[in-house]
Write a structure and sequence with these properties.
about 140 residues, 7-stranded antiparallel β-sheet, two-stranded antiparallel ribbon
């Protein structure tokens, strides 16, 4: 893939891109999913506060997840994801590892509620941000009609 930009703020980026996912029904009650992608993106160092601070980024993502039905209406899951952002023409690479755990309760065929926990371990090498860890909690309610 080759991306060219008009103007002086973004430099062209050329890289191979790919993406895909594979889900395996390991047992009647368990699925295992592996997915990944690599693509060229754009980033802003200040979130757009300072004009013309954009740069090209090559992002690689790998995810492995398993879900297990413990009861007819309860599914527990777990997995891990890895994201790497490689910044174009500056010495900076960001890595983030993120293990996760989840539980989903199917109230009926229309409504579900869930809880997800994810721990993010972020590290930036080169010119970048200080490393950090954070805990992310998500409570969800979904309806399908």
């Amino acid at each position: 893939m080759n991306q060219d930009y008009n103007g002086f703020t973004m430099l062209p980026v050329s890289t191979w891109t790919a993406g895909g996912a594979l889900t395996w029904a390991a047992t009647d009650n368990m699925t295992v999913t592996a997915s990944g992608r690599r693509e060229a993106l754009e980033a802003s160092f200040t979130g757009g506060i300072i004009p013309n601070d954009g740069i090209s980024v090559v992002e690689s993502v790998a995810i492995l997840r398993a879900d297990y039905r413990v009861m007819e209406n309860v599914v527990v899951g777990g997995g891990i994801s890895y994201i790497q952002d490689d910044y174009n023409l500056i010495p900076r690479t960001d890595d983030a590892w993120s293990p996760l755990a989840s539980v989903k309760y199917f109230i009926n065929p229309t409504f579900t509620v869930g809880f997800d926990y994810r721990r993010v371990d972020f590290e930036s090498k080169g010119i970048g941000l200080p490393s950090y860890n954070r805990n992310v909690y998500l409570l969800s309610a979904n309806a399908r009609f």
